[in-house]
Amino acid sequence: MTESEVAEIATFGYERARDELVNVVKMLEQGGMDLDDSLALWERGEALAARCEDHLAGARRRVEDALARHGDGDRE
């Protein structure tokens, strides 16, 4: 993957990255591509999956932080 492709994926929101990842998986499952194209698509899929995981990890942290803030007030 090129640096510009990596930079582009870094700007994707969760839904866009997830939707494109679904399309990448479908294309790989269909087959019919040569090895180089398949590898390039797989690399893009890996980058998209990592972007999705980043979003999910951020959401998880926000929920944990909110629970911790609310939980601290209930302990008194």
TrEMBL record:
Its main location: cytoplasm. It catalyses: Exonucleolytic cleavage in either 5'- to 3'- or 3'- to 5'-direction to yield nucleoside 5'-phosphates. Keywords: Cytoplasm, Exonuclease, Hydrolase, Nuclease. GO terms for molecular function: exodeoxyribonuclease VII activity. It is an enzyme of class 3 (hydrolase). Coiled coil: none annotated. One of its GO terms (biological process) is DNA catabolic process. Pfam families: Exonuc_VII_S (PF02609). GO terms for cellular component: cytosol; exodeoxyribonuclease VII complex. It comes from the Bacteria. Belongs to the XseB family. Bidirectionally degrades single-stranded DNA into large acid-insoluble oligonucleotides, which are then degraded further into small acid-soluble oligonucleotides. This is Exodeoxyribonuclease 7 small subunit. It comes from Nocardia vermiculata.
